[in-house]
Amino acid sequence: MRIVAYVDGFRIYYACFKGPAKTPHAHLKWLDYGALFDASFPDDEVVAVRVYTAIAPNPPDDPGQALRHDVYRPGVDDAPGC
Q1: Which residues is 43 bridged to in the sheet?
Q2: How many independent structural domains does the chain possess?
Q3: Which domain holds residue 63?
Q4: Which residues does 52 contact at the CB level (< 8 Å), separation at least 6?
Q5: Which of the four pLDDT bands, split at 50, 70 and 90, describes residue 46?
Q6: CB 45 within 8 Å of CB 3
Q7: How confident is the model at residue 22 (pLDDT cuts 50, 70, 90)?
Q8: Is 82 a domain residue?
């Protein structure tokens, strides 16, 4: 079967940086999505991986959030498997 994988990039980003789970999940920030889906579906052909995201807000308690997300987004676009 041919597979096109869609990733909710903002959820991954948020999980890496916010809440009590951020420390154990920080390594997922640069996850190779192509390798992940290839390993998850070894008998299928992953033909594309698409990462979509929302634009991060700039909340009053974290004024640098939007800037960090703006820096992060191009890196994800250039990451292997995307």
Answers
A1: none
A2: 1
A3: 2-77
A4: 6, 7, 8, 9
A5: very high
A6: yes
A7: low
A8: no
Query: Is residue 10 very low, low, confident or very high in pLDDT (cuts 50, 70, 90)?
Result: confident
Of the CA atoms within 13 Å of residue 15, those in its CB half-sphere come to: 12
Could you give the angle at the alpha carbon of 62 between the alpha carbons of 56 and 67, nearest 5°?
45
For residue 82, the one-letter residue type is C
The answer to whether residue 8 is domain-embedded is yes
Between the CA atoms of 62, 64, 69 and 70, what dihedral angle is there, to the nearest 10 degrees?
A: 150
65 sits in which H/E element: helix 65-78
Tokens of 62: 């974290």
Closest CA to 79 of 30, 19, 11, 22: 30
Residue carrying the six token digits 């999940």? 25
pLDDT at 81: 57
CB 52 within 8 A of CB 7: yes
